[in-house]
Amino acid sequence: MSLDRVVVVGCGAAGLAVCRELRARGYDGNIIVVEQSSVPPVPKPALVSVVAGRLEPSQASQRYHQLRTLGVQVLWGYRAVELAHHEDCVVARCAQGGQVCIEWDALVLAVGARPVLPAVFEAGRQVLHLHTRAEAVMLRELVRRHGSLVIVGGGPIACKLGCELAPRGCRVTVISASPWLMARMLDGEAGYLAARVLTNRGVDVRLGTELSAVQPRGNTGAILKLKTGDTLAADCVVVAKGQRPDVRWLQDSGVRLGREGILTDLEMKTSRDRVWACGDCAEVAATGGATGVRFGSWSAAVNQARVVAGSILGLGTSYCPHAGGNVVTLGATQFVAFGRSEQRTGIRVLARRGPDRYARLTLRRSRLVAAVMVGEALPVGLVRHLILRGTLLSEDELCALAAGDLDYIVIGRHERGDCDV
Amino acid sequence: MAQVLAVDPRRCTGCRTCELVCSHAKTGQFRPTQSAIRRVTVLDDLGFQPWCCLQCTDAECVQVCPVQAIRRTPEGWLEVDPDSCIGCSLCSLVCPFGNIRVIEGYATKCDLCGGDPLCVRWCPRNALAVDEAANLAEAKAAASAAAYRKLIADQRGGCGVKRVQ
Ligand SMILES: Cc1cc2nc3c(=O)[nH]c(=O)nc-3n(C[C@H](O)[C@H](O)[C@H](O)COP(=O)(O)OP(=O)(O)OC[C@H]3O[C@@H](n4cnc5c(N)ncnc54)[C@H](O)[C@@H]3O)c2cc1C
Ligand code: SF4
Ligand code: SF4
């Protein structure tokens, strides 16, 4: 089978990394990228910095300059709308109505995920998400006017946005139904520390409550009624309540879909021959089941893209779901999570050092399997390394790590192969 | 030619002077946990090893950075541009050696202090130096070759004749 042309749909974290990896591994055929945005997108982790005015959108999008040196052809402003079932061809349309049909020898689906809108908001009126350059620029204007902002959702995006905007003169309220912030990532105590960082920066944090009704106010504002009976008026409402891939256009394409995304195996191959998926849209089913896991993070997207490039070139690579981990920085404080610490059995070490430092580490069969850490300049790399390598640790060493006193363990006592996260 | 920090663990006494001068240069405070160079304990022989960014060729940190804030200087080492860095910590998550950390919202790693590292100047035992990566690779290859030669010689009894126990 010839491999003259690789087509990549979506040019976010995963799409661009696929192009880079293919070239790095010596592929010199045609690479065509189809991207619905008409200008290079702002990388999502940089959107909050754009809103805060710390970074210009053009500066944030610098990574797209490499597309030219990589010799990649990009169809900016074209949205893939159909993948033919019996032909190796993907149909894409631009806003002006033009349509192209692009043939491929290998197809990579890297279309990311779209924000979820709670039912209480009628068709998205009076609501912004923080997903695109345009939304970031609109929000930046609000910040310049020192407007009031309500953020619906208590995840990392809501926390980062609140943390950056409140000290810049915006009145910010964060509303979350969860009992603590970043509930899917942190345990209660770490979530409490996150709420304290936000409160100290002037954010009004309302936990364990939901919206019951929303009424438009003026051009962009809204009046929000909470289930607690409180009412909030805002110049702007940002909804950050999770994301889901938009893969409806793939329904009759022969590509099998899972609960939310595109089903893949550990080589990131979909059910259709010579079609791969990676990034936020991929649902990885390690055992070939009907549902899998989506990893909504930048580093997972980049790692999966590497696997895709290797697999296209027949290098037999596979994705290691354990390599992940999440870090959120609020001000100078880092919140780090590896593994699902709540569900882990084993020896737990809790350390509180000063009011802003906390660690909860879980040791099982003498190996670190999960960690939640809060503090400044945390040894993120060391913790990841210990978990991935399965380094054998004593309880004393675990305590030292939790207290921030553990030096590197360089030689010996690792390479136990599998890891539990 | 890429320049890197060359360390000689045989000379290191674990005094942590490097960590103190580095953290002071980077943060204005003497806080070893915030230093870009770490003195680590090698548990097997309880010796010490200064541990620092290797200025990797295909650096993971460079590849993952969403805003290309980590750039290679013409002299060959990698520097973080604080004006571009958004403090997302992705680099610290992927560096295989834990050699980059986010401090006060910005990524911090060894940038060889612009070519004249303070740790090299202050190390009382001359355990640190700046060298070309190629020289280090050559020295390492020569050391491995010598170790193999010794191993083979030991197995053969030193003169091609199998040693009889
Ligand atoms: C505000 C925000 C902050 C974040 N911060 C962090 C962080 O600090 N650390 C972290 O690890 N993760 C973070 N994330 C998550 C991270 O950005 C995503 O996991 C990552 O971008 C996923 O990469 P991707 O390539 O799968 O998707 P994306 O980066 O979303 O790229 C998908 C691309 O596909 C295009 N596309 C979609 N459909 C089509 C179509 N039909 N045709 C053509 N093009 C299409 C989209 O326009 C988009 O450019 C953040 C997310 C958000 C929203
Ligand atoms: S920070 Fe880590 S990955 Fe980056 S160049 Fe240094 S050692 Fe390599
Ligand atoms: S912390 Fe800074 S240097 Fe590191 S990946 Fe993020 S933006 Fe790049």
Structure overview:
Chain A is of the alpha/beta class and 421 residues long. Chain A has 3 domains: 162 residues, FAD/NAD(P)-binding domain; 125 residues, FAD/NAD(P)-binding domain, CATH 3.50.50; 83 residues, FAD/NAD-linked reductase, C-terminal dimerisation domain (Enolase-like, domain 1), CATH 3.30.390. Chain A contains 10 helices and 25 strands. A 5-stranded parallel β-sheet of chain A has the order 3-2-1-7-19, with helices on one face. In chain A, strands 9-16-10-11-12 form a 5-stranded parallel β-sheet, covered by helices on one side. Chain A has a 5-stranded antiparallel β-sheet with strand order 21-22-25-24-23, with helices on both faces. Chain A is globular, with a radius of gyration of 23 Å. Chain A starts with a strand and ends in a 19-residue tail after the last helix. The C terminus of chain A is likely disordered. Chain B is 30% helix and 19% strand. In chain B, the strands form 4 sheets. A two-stranded antiparallel ribbon of chain B has the order 1-8. Chain B is built from 5 helices and 8 strands, in the order E-H-E-E-H-E-E-H-E-E-H-E-H. The longest helix of chain B is centred in the last third of the chain and has 23 residues. With 165 residues, chain B is of the alpha+beta class. Chain B has a single domain, classed as Alpha-Beta Plaits, CATH 3.30.70. The C terminus of chain B is likely disordered. Classes of the chains: A alpha/beta (421), B alpha+beta (165). The interface between A and B is large, with 43 and 38 residues. The complex binds flavin-adenine dinucleotide and iron/sulfur cluster (2 copies). Flavin-adenine dinucleotide binds next to helix 1, strand 2, strand 4 and helix 8 of chain A.
